[in-house]
Amino acid sequence: MASPAQQQTFQRKVIYLGSVVVLLLGSLLWRKYAVEAKAEEMALLDQSHGDVEVVGSALRLGMSGSRGLVICALWMSAIEKQKKNQWNELELNVRTLTKLQPHFITPWLFQSWNLAYNVSRESDLPKDKYFYISRGVQLLADGERQNRYNPQMRRDLGHFQQHKICQSDETNVLRSIFQLSCIPPYDRRPERFGYDKDNLDWEIKWDEFAAFCRAHPHLVRRLHTPPLPNDPRKEHKKFRCKNAREVILFLAEHRNLPSLYVEEEESARDYEQKNFKPNPLERFPVLPPDRPNMLDPEEWTDGALTRRPSVPDEFDAFTVARAWYSYAQEALPPPGDIPGESAPIKDRLREHVPRHMSTIIFRTAPSLAQTFVAQRLQEEGWYDNTPFIPETWFTNAEGYRGGPVEVGEKKHWSQEAWQKAYDSWKSFGKANHIYFDDPRQLLLKRAAIEKALRSPRFHQGRFPEGLTEEDLTQEEREGLHAMRFLEGYDRARMNANFPHFLMRTNVERKVEAIKARKLFYEAEQARLARGANEEALEKYEHPEALLAWRQILEQNEEFRLDGTIQEDTYEMEMKYLRAYRFIHGEKLTRDLVLEAFLGQAITPGPLAADWSLLGLFTQHKLLADPSKGEPTVLGPFEKDFQGKPLISNDIKRTVIQQRELKPTGSE
Predict the structure, then answer these.
(1) What pLDDT score was predicted for residue 277?
(2) Other CB atoms within 10 Å distance of the CB of residue 357
(3) Among the listed residues 486, 490, 483, the one whose alpha carbon sits nearest the alpha carbon of residue 451
(4) Minimal CA–CA distance to 659: which of 236, 232, 228?
């Protein structure tokens, strides 16, 4: 039998063991029902942020307290690798850093930007730049998957692709490479068209090449007839292929690219079947994921990509950016009752406001991206359903026996794109209370203010001090809310530049504006690309060009007073006058005098050729080279039918300074 001391020892052990069990069980219950519940409510769990990365979690757990020291060492090492241009080692360090700091947003944002901008800039070849742009975007996409509800990361994913590919100095070649990423490698392999790297005298397979051109009209037009530089003296000519052989060599040079599709070396079977890469994070361009309750159900996503038989040829980086911008809006709280403000956050996990940008500006991104889509189409010549003919690739080409090759779907490109942009801006305005179908709603707000201001407690339009809204009458509360609403209304419209974009998209979507823009595009292609000044002048003087544009300005006062439109119009005027002066030369003054008399005699209406009125020729000077003694001419947009200037002198001076020109004479 145990002694009393042994019994006491045993009892203490039982008590201690029981206490341990109780405390352990209590701590587990406390963790599950108190700590984890609160952490989930405050969105502090890994799974609350997004996908859990197993390797990174194991690495962080294994490093314990030494993680901070390793992170500092990796940051220093990454900086040194970048200084030494050791790009592969840099990317490895960056990947490790993000695994150790998965929910610290700054490393994701900075290092992805670093790869897409700084590292890509150090490369000489466009395809190398494109590679590091894609690596930066894919890195940020990985971060977004692990931090699902961060609007800034989502927006940057769109902005990086838009800015680096569609708005860079080498935009034409980068846009073309981007489009190759969206074409199955099996379809664009250069051997299809006769290319043989071991034989310098390989012959083009014209039937295959013509079929490729018909299948990819936007790529063909971009490579054949690139957009003209805005100022040829300051900008380099954009990348182009002079003949079919150069196109095939371009395909051969860019055979291996970051792509949506499986490459031949990855899987020959998937390569031939033109399958998408199974991991969305390895695809480029990167698209947002499918999710329920999308703001725009027709927007591009990973799921929409795989559900379609192929990527349409007009798919570009602006389209990808628009998809990410729309996805970013879903991480914001809904708009509030006051324009420019957001409703109170109800879901702390899924609703956040941007930290470094006004929320109303952040909300404009999808509409702005669609506006860029419409501008890009016109910049590259897609206005209406007229097909494009790449003449110089086929006409008189050795070995080609077929007729002209027409490419391009018969579709009203510009009208549809501008209409979509207008609808997008209109929906944005309605959602944020800065646009109303019925303008009487604003009048009611102003009437409510006037009623409230009659109250003796409102002094000079100010809220009565020492009172809360509960102390006011119903009429006074309505007036106070109307004051705040209209203040927010004006501020939000100005910050978002909403009147400009709504007005511009509304005018640009109209048929007459599209026809005029098309003729201006064709005139400049003739004048600068082919040196055909007579053809350019004929295009400019077509009734649906300068005269139609003038009518648009006359009929849309808000449009004509917009600074951007005035600059654009003055640029058109200078280009037209250069072509006119080149053709007429010394006969210019005599021809203009005759045209003035004929114009006044034949066209007496307000929209006559009043830019050539005889009495005004000696009052205004054309921008010209004084050393050449060029004659002076009054431009077509100098005055409206009431004799008032269509373009302000401030705008003229701005354009002159931008172009570094010197006007002759005085204004």
Answers:
(1) 94
(2) 14
(3) 483
(4) 232
> Residue 642's CB: how many other CB atoms inside 10 A?
7
3-state helix, strand, coil split of the chain in percent (to 5) is 60, 0, 35
Which tokens sit at 557? Answer: 């006062």
Token couple for 444: 């009611």
Closest to 536 (Cα-Cα) out of 522, 550, 517, 546: 522
* C-alpha atoms less than 13 angstroms from C-alpha of 615 in its C-beta half-sphere: 2
Q: What is the DSSP string of 368-383?
A: HHHHHHHHHHHHTT--
Tokens of 400: 């080609």
Instruction: Calculate mean pLDDT across residues 423-449.
Output: 92
Nearest to 193 by CA among 173, 213, 221, 177: 213
Tokens of 251: 């395909």
Only one residue has tokens 């150069």, namely 246
239-267 pLDDT, tens per residue?
Answer: 999 999 999 999 999 999 999 999 999 99
Rounded alpha-carbon distances, angstroms, from residue 439 to 428, 429, 433, 524: 17, 13, 12, 41
Measured distance CA(6)–CA(4) in Å, rounded = 5
Taking the CA atoms of the chain, what radius of gyration do you get in angstroms?
32
Model confidence over 560-587: pLDDT tens digits? 999 999 999 999 998 898 888 888 764 5
Other beta carbons within 10 angstroms of residue 15's beta carbon come to 10
State how far the Cα of 414 lies from the Cα of 587, in Å rounded to an integer.
Answer: 39
Q: Which amino acid is at 394?
A: F
Burial class (CB in 10 A: 0-12, 13-18, 19+), 209: buried
Structure tokens at 253: 């040079």
Give the tokens for residue 549.
């544009």
Binned at pLDDT 50, 70 and 90, residue 628 comes out as very low
User: What are the sequence ranges of the domains in the chain?
Assistant: 68-146, 510-659
Report field, pTM of the whole predicted structure over 0.90: no
If pLDDT is split at 50, 70 and 90, which confidence band does 588 have? Answer: low
CB 320 within 8 A of CB 161: yes
| Cβ–Cβ < 8 Å for 458, 464 | yes
pLDDT in tens, 142-159: 999 988 889 999 999 999
